């Protein structure tokens, strides 16, 4: 089968499209014929070696964790899905090696759910990691209907999912973004505020008594600001500040979860969660996709089509 690989830590230029053996499918796994693979910043950060201290990496690596496709075969004693089922998921395994930038990927069933009916394969491939991150951040903060959440970097890939999910859960959402993204946030149901100096004062104008929780999806030293705005100091969650725990906040690392993926699919099928695919590139252009991701100017998702 065809797959994108890299044999050592480096830049997007190290990616190559090669022929590799078809993956084996063990108990509790299915083989997925990949229709689209989502591109996330963690993909190129892994390839650059940034996460080597905490993740086991075995070269050569097929990158990618997000996938949408069709079940090609099932492993022994695997009854969760059948051949022909359309699935999507966050296929993070025990170590980094056999990812989703390929024609086929073996996926533990705990990492998959049935694909949202109302989303294309490209849209579905853009949802798992960022959508799970947003949803699990909201649940980690213990938010419930009627409360107010402040989302930092609300117009980004994870933030925009966070806004939509929060609104669907009955939350009031205040979201930080540049002025050019304020209308976009309003369209998602958030009240936008400009990030940067004076952020706390601008939030207090909207919520004089404070917010119930704060979510940091960017990591530019904003945790202390969020803690000054929440009613209870421990209701701040960050996905980007590796010193969050030391600062008294929750540091979240997203986990594969079939139930959570199913919930996101239900929101999408109900029309409460949309996925904006800004770039859909062929598998062979993975390096270009990484360059677009690293530039940080893409509002929607980047996916590779297979």
From TrEMBL:
EC number: 1.-.-.-
InterPro entries the record matches: ADH-like_N, Chloroplast_QOR, ER, GroES-like_sf, NAD(P)-bd_dom_sf
Pfam families: ADH_N (PF08240), ADH_zinc_N_2 (PF13602)
Gene3D superfamilies: Medium-chain alcohol dehydrogenases, catalytic domain (3.90.180.10), NAD(P)-binding Rossmann-like Domain (3.40.50.720)
Keyword Thylakoid among record annotations: no
Taxonomy, superkingdom: Bacteria
The protein's enzyme class: oxidoreductase
Ranges where the Enoyl reductase (ER) domain occurs: 10-304
Gene Ontology MF: a single term: oxidoreductase activity
Keywords assigned: Oxidoreductase
Name by which UniProt lists this protein: NADP-dependent oxidoreductase
């Amino acid at each position: 089968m065809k797959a994108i690989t890299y044999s050592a830590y480096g830049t997007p230029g190290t990616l190559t499209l090669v022929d590799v053996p078809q993956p084996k499918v063990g108990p509790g796994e299915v083989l997925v014929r990949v229709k689209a693979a989502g591109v996330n910043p963690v993909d190129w950060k892994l390839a650059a070696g940034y996460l080597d201290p905490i993740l086991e990496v075995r070269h050569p690596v097929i990158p990618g964790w997000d996938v949408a496709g069709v079940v090609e075969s099932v492993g022994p004693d695997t009854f969760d899905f059948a051949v022909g089922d359309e699935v999507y998921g966050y296929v993070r395994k025990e170590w980094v090696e056999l990812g989703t930038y390929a024609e086929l990927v073996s996926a533990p069933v705990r990492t998959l759910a049935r694909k949202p009916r109302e989303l294309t394969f490209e849209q579905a491939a853009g949802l798992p990691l960022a959508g799970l991150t947003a949803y699990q951040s909201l649940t980690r903060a213990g938010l419930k209907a009627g409360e107010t959440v402040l989302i930092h970097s609300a117009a980004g890939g994870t933030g925009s999912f966070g806004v939509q999910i929060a609104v669907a859960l009955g939350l009031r959402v205040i979201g930080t973004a540049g002025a050019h993204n304020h209308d976009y946030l309003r369209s998602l149901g958030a009240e936008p505020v400009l990030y940067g100096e004076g952020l706390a004062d601008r939030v207090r104008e909207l919520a004089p008594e404070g917010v119930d929780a704060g979510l940091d999806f960017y990591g530019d030293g904003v945790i202390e600001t969020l803690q000054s705005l929440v009613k209870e100091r421990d209701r701040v969650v960050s996905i980007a500040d590796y010193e969050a725990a030391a600062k008294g906040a929750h540091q979240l690392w997203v986990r594969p979860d079939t139930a959570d993926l199913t919930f996101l699919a239900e929101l999408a099928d109900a029309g409460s969660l949309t996925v904006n695919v800004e770039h859909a590139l062929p598998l062979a252009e993975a390096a270009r996709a990484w360059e677009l991701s690293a530039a940080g100017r893409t509002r929607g998702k980047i996916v590779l089509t297979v």
